[in-house]
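Q: Could you write out the predicted structure for this multi-component system? I'm mainly interested in how the pieces pack against one another.
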Amino acid sequence: MNLRRQPDQALPVIAGGLGKKYRRGWALRETSLVIPKNRIVALVGPNGAGKSTLMGLITGLLRPTTGGITVFGDRPTGKGLHPTVSYLAQQKPLYQQFTVTETLKFGARTNPTWDQRYAEYLVEQAAVPMGATVGTLSGGQRTRVALALALGKRPGLLLLDEPLADLDPLARETVLRTLITEARTQGITVVLSSHVLAELEGVCDHLVLLHKGQVLLAGDVNQLGADGTPLGELALNRMREAAQEEAA
Amino acid sequence: MIWVSLRRQRAQLITLLGMLTIGAGAIILLRSNMIDAINSSQLTQCVTQALQECSAAEAAKAFQTTWTTRLNVGQAAILSLPALIGVFIGAPLFARELEQGTHVLAFTQSVSRTRWMFSKLVVALVPALIVLIALQYLVSWWLSAAGTLGPLMGGSFSALNFGIAHFSPVGYALFAFALGAFIGVASRRTLVAMTAGLGAFIVVRFALSGLVNRLIPAQRLEVAPGTPMDVHQDGSLVLDEGWLDTAGQPVSGDRAGTLLQACKSTPTGTPNTQEGFLACLPQSGLAKRYASFIPESQAWQVHLIDASIYSGLAVLLLAGTVWVLRRQS
């Protein structure tokens, strides 16, 4: 009970035996996982590995079929997101008819921990005009606005589902750089999912490798790669092994 | 959260305000034109009299030819407004969010789903109901100016008059709105919610149209043959009528018809006199005529029951909507 009152002392994510079954089958099975504080976590795996499902379970958008999960000591429910958690879904949903100013006002009205000045600063940094309607923005600009909305909440844990997927290489780099700067200076734990490990290599310091709903590899990068194997190769080897085990 | 819902519904609110302004303006203009027409053709007394007693029968007929259609259009507008509220406000309310994925945006802020839902429901429903009630009031104000020259002559229970009076339109609107919203969250498709919602609304309206009359205790009237039954003239809703035999049991319609036909001629084959006809009826087993009816003065009770049924259905559907949305998938 005491832990719940002190979210600062609880770990961002603790999952035990966590599983999720959809009508078409298991998306995530018997996953036990701990995400430590102040890390930039790469959640990597091929399409359909269960990355979005894991994020949905952390946010409480989905209900686990088996096992349990705590986020900063609390069990996620459908009653709104934990105040210290921000989530940016893959489709980057924003109200198309809202202007950027109105989008930030939406954030202010729906989040008690909102920091308007910080959110405005992030939008200005991205050089997105405040008066523009969201529907008229480019993909890169939309991502920056969505990111400002997610960060304006002053989260302790930021979940980003394939944040770079629909961006051009230049925008990828700037978005990623902003993200890392903010995460490091604000002490935010960031979970980035991607099916391409290469784009997160050199950025993340913690890796979670998912494959067919199971965790193949999880841990700090400096420990995993202690023997000097590049991260990409490590992940690929682990996935090959898994595929061979399956075939056997 | 109210600000967010107001901003999301802005286009609809402007449309509603426009509808109210244009509708009110049109009704006020038409009403004053109509009163001018009544005055200029000296029909003022006929507004409160039955048509048969109206001295200027020709002018009354001419007035009706011009104005009946317009008045009926006004009535039809109020009758169809609940369906429109269901299709254009209820159905897209959640379906559009679910379709475009923006519900994820709302669900991942620090606001509970329940609060989000209720603020959306209130902001969508309350202005629509206000506009509906205002237009309903204006149309009935216009109709009452025409009095018995207009559609009100048909009595409170005629299909058009009943559907636009008292609490009924609000009941229908609540039901149509809730139906649209529920199909919207169940199907997650705006177009499905709009079309299926409209279809289901019309089916239910027809299916339940006769039900409410049976839920209120009817009055019964029994008269001797030859006495006129004024229930057909005084605007009452006649539920059942026919003949009773000497034991007080109802006579079937076919049999009553045969007996009546038989009494119209004497046993010798010549047409019967009125006295002979009336004397013949009790002898052949048609002792009394009866009617069960709801008097016009009780119309408000029928409306109350009608509106309660539809509001009850609406509450169930809204509870279903809340349940589906709160469920974590």
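A: Regarding packing and overall arrangement: The mean pLDDT of chain B is 88.
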